[in-house]
Amino acid sequence: METAIRLENVVKKYPKFTLDHINLELPKGCIMGLVGENGAGKTTLIKCILGLISLSDGRIYRDEKVISKKEIEWKNDVGVVMSGSSFPGNLNAKQINKIMENIYSRWDKNIFYDYLKQFHIDENKFTKDYSTGMAMKLQIAVAFSHNAKLLLLDEATSGLDPVVRDEILEILQNFIQDEECTVLFSSHITSDLEKVADYITFLHKGKLIFSENKDELLYNYGVVRCSKEDYKRIDPEHVVGLRKNQFGYEVMVDNRIDISRQNRDWVVDSTTLEEIILFQIKGDVL
């Protein structure tokens, strides 16, 4: 499978935080979900890819060529939606369309106005009067209207109602159908990622914990509910996280099927992406 973006030992140092030697490949033609708690480094990682912040070390490649901040074509190929950012309040969608026509060589006015209609955005309403959800939908409309090959979405579905979120997820799935377009999508809404992501990348305190195929991840991981004595029989190499309660132990493992076959009297449940993350972040000390 071809690689859209590759990060090689990427480091970004701040006084109180370090994005620590990230090695990551984003396959072309897929949706990768980026997860982690607040402050894990998700937004920093996206800004590094965009060239909005300089790297302390490492390199980022696009189609196996080092990305240069001066590449105009690279910027044309990227659509961006960043949580917390917005257009100037004294602009309306009609004016933004005119501005984007001068920025993007492949800007498509018809696509943009189709999204305005789909999202019920009044082209004459100033953005200062938008709700949080409406402002996010305008960003999404812009990101999808210049025939980008790569979409970088940072909490793009935050603040949107479930119906609109489903519309966005469907748009993302359609976007990658030609296998040439790619999405990196950070979100706290893990159920959204379970619906559409092909890969899941998990950051914790600036470190890459895993980047795996989503279906394989959910197939292999599971929760063993057992006694302390049975817990000691589980190979520590396969223990991802642990919770202790009044009934015994809940153990997140990465070899659910094997454990189920070897211990048929044990309770071994399938799991969710949210549970996997919570066990990693908030599990008891092993």
TrEMBL record:
Classification via InterPro entries: AAA+_ATPase (IPR003593), ABC_transporter-like_ATP-bd (IPR003439), ABC_Transporter_VariousFunc (IPR051782), P-loop_NTPase (IPR027417)
Stretches that traverse the bilayer: none
Keywords associated with the record: ATP-binding, Nucleotide-binding, Transport
SUPFAM superfamilies listed in its UniProt record: P-loop containing nucleoside triphosphate hydrolases
Gene3D superfamilies: P-loop containing nucleotide triphosphate hydrolases
UniProt-recorded Gene Ontology molecular function terms: ATP binding; ATP hydrolysis activity
ABC transporter domain: residues covered: 5-230
Keyword Kinase attributed: no
Protein name: ABC-2 type transport system ATP-binding protein
Organism: Lactonifactor longoviformis DSM 17459
